[in-house]
Recover the amino acids of this structure.
């Protein structure tokens, strides 16, 4: 159950770690402790990829440690336990069929069918709010990159690309018909121009009344504030709603190492751009639906503050907060307890296919040492409190 905080209108959020069983706290503590060591993360990431390549059966070990911490399960059915548990504390779920695999039409088609099944599942399950899609799970990354660079596609490539966009369209159409939001994730900058075009085409097609399709803006990119202004102008001119998920961005190390670097080099510049994007969205809220997707306490507080200043209700259905499952529970549970709309991004899929996602989470958690040691300290304190409690 979530810890309750006093949430009078103007009070600043005081993030509190939620009550959990000792077994849950212990698993969370040991997984985060392991990830706080960059050497262990680097070694285990390479080991996991190597073991997969030579078909070593490492699934069992991963499934009961890091997978259990960051994922709902291998199937929707297995994910139900996590969904129900979050729901008990007023936290919704964003389903994320998080498989990453080969450049094959068979794989893309099976991903699409899984996601269409997930949309039907969301419709049936009031504890699940929406779902996310990863474009490179549905359309060839090689072709996205060629398109982004303006390189002409051959006839067969063109047909494959059109089929890929068609798969994204089918998912957005099903979402629109059933009133289920579809978040289109952002990926590496080589893919992103093509993904942006697809996302805008889907928003303009399906977001006429409300935002059903959401694009994602990575605010570590130096061009995203001006891109957001372009989106506002386009939406006003063409009369559609913009769904936008704001993130800082998961690929900063890789992007900043590129010769043509399009990301901020100083963290505070990314932070500033993120909060300015929140300002733009709130200033134009009649044209927007927002997902504030962050583990950053200041950006979380900042949005609650500007919502309050503009007199926007905490549970306004155009505004959601979201954190990744297994990360920053103190933020999610505190927000839910205070009456905000909040979801956890819950990845699911076969262990083998989720490994690239897990490696990104491991790397992310080993590179945010400050925040993570705070989270570990909160978990240690929660364990200490639980041991002292007469009911434990
Ligand atoms: C619900 C949800 C959905 C997400 N979807 C996506 C997605 O579609 N695509 C995607 O790419 N990511 C996505 N992410 C991942 C997200 O990008 C990372 O979790 C996020 O970057 C971590 O930052 P933070 O906002 O939690 O804040 P913090 O932990 O405060 O910020 C860390 C981030 O700051 C940036 N940064 C780090 N060092 C520097 C530096 N020196 N200069 C400039 N910037 C720096 C990086 O982006 C780094 O990840 C998602 C996250 C959530 C919570």
């Amino acid at each position: 159950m979530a810890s309750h905080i006093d949430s009078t209108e103007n009070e600043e959020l005081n993030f509190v770690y939620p009550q959990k069983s000792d077994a849950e706290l212990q698993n969370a503590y040991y997984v985060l402790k392991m990830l706080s060591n960059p050497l262990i993360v680097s070694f285990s990431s390479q080991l996991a990829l190597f073991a997969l390549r030579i078909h070593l059966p490492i699934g069992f070990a991963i499934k009961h440690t890091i997978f259990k911490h960051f994922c709902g399960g291998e199937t929707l059915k297995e994910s139900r336990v996590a969904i129900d548990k979050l729901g008990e504390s007023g936290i919704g779920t964003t389903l994320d069929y998080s498989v990453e695999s080969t450049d094959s039409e068979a794989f893309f088609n099976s991903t699409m069918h899984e996601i269409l099944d997930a949309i039907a599942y969301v419709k049936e399950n009031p504890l699940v709010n929406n779902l996310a899609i990863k474009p490179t799970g549905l359309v060839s990354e090689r072709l996205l990159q060629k398109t982004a660079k303006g390189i002409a596609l051959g006839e067969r490539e063109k047909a494959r690309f059109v089929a890929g966009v068609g798969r994204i369209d089918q998912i957005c159409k099903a979402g629109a018909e059933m009133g289920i939001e579809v978040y289109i994730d952002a990926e590496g900058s080589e893919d992103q121009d093509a993904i942006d075009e697809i996302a805008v085409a889907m928003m303009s097609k399906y977001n006429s009344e409300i935002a059903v399709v959401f694009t994602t803006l990575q605010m570590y990119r130096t061009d995203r504030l001006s891109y957001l202004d372009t989106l506002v102008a386009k939406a006003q001119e063409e009369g559609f709603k913009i769904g936008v998920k704001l993130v800082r961005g998961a690929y900063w190390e890789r992007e900043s190492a590129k010769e043509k670097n399009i990301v901020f080099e100083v963290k505070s510049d990314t932070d500033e751009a993120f909060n300015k994007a929140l300002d733009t969205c709130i200033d134009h809220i009649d044209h927007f639906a927002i997902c504030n997707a962050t583990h950053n306490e200041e950006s979380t507080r900042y949005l609650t503050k500007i919502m309050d200043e503009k007199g926007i209700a905490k549970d306004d259905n155009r505004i959601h907060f979201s954190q990744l499952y297994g990360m920053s529970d103190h933020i999610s549970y505190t927000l839910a307890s205070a009456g905000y709309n909040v979801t956890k991004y819950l990845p699911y899929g076969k262990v083998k296919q989720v490994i690239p996602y897990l490696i990104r989470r491991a790397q992310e958690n080993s590179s945010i040492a400050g925040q993570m040691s705070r989270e570990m300290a909160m978990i240690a304190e929660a364990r200490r409190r639980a041991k002292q409690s007469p009911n434990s």
Residues 185-186, 216, 218, 220, 247-252, 264-267, 269-270, 293-296, 322-324, 345, 364, 368, 371 surround flavin-adenine dinucleotide (CB under 6 Å). The two ends are 15 Å apart (CA to CA). Confidence is low (pLDDT under 50) at residues 1-10.
